[in-house]
Amino acid sequence: MPISRRQLAASLLASPHIAERHAIAAFVADAATQPAPNPFPDTSVGAVRQVWRQRAAEFRSFDIEAVGLSCLLTAVSGIGVEEALVQEILRAGPHTANVFHRGDGCRIVGAVLYGKPGVGLPVLPVPRAMRSALSRQSRAHRPAEQLDLFARTET
Q1: Are strands 42-44 and 95-101 parallel, antiparallel or unpaired?
Q2: Surface-to-core class of residue 90, CB atoms within 10 Å of its CB (0-12 exposed, 13-18 middle, 19+ buried)
């Protein structure tokens, strides 16, 4: 059963290891974004490493803007090359998002949003439903204050 765009967007927002998750999630959730032909939905960490390292070099050479690429490469560098992943490809106009998860659509390993050469990335607002979910999530995950071991106390 295919993963819905809404579920992918929510899963992206819940992935703190992806620095640009808000931009990618907004793109995935946008009504203009649609699933694209996906010749290799089932892949492996090793294949993702090889393909996206090459794409990183191509993106630099051809002046293609992308977000999420460094986070994807960092994430897959810590996983065994034989581990299975599922790739979702979504497109809107000149922009494409590739989202990699562990097969359930919930545990996102990484995602990349990119455009065509010389085309900037879309600037999309995060949908209202996602904003409220995000604010609930950020309140729940606020870090506890750190204890200052070197603070002076007045006596």
Answers
A1: unpaired
A2: buried
d(CA 45, CA 89): 16
Could you tell me the pTM of the whole model?
0.80
pLDDT tens digits for the chain (155 residues)? Answer: 578 999 999 999 999 999 999 999 999 999 999 999 998 899 999 999 999 999 999 999 999 999 999 999 999 999 999 999 999 999 999 999 999 999 987 899 999 999 999 999 988 766 565 555 545 544 444 444 555 555 565 55
For residue 100, which amino acid is it?
A: F
Token pair belonging to 115: 């455009």
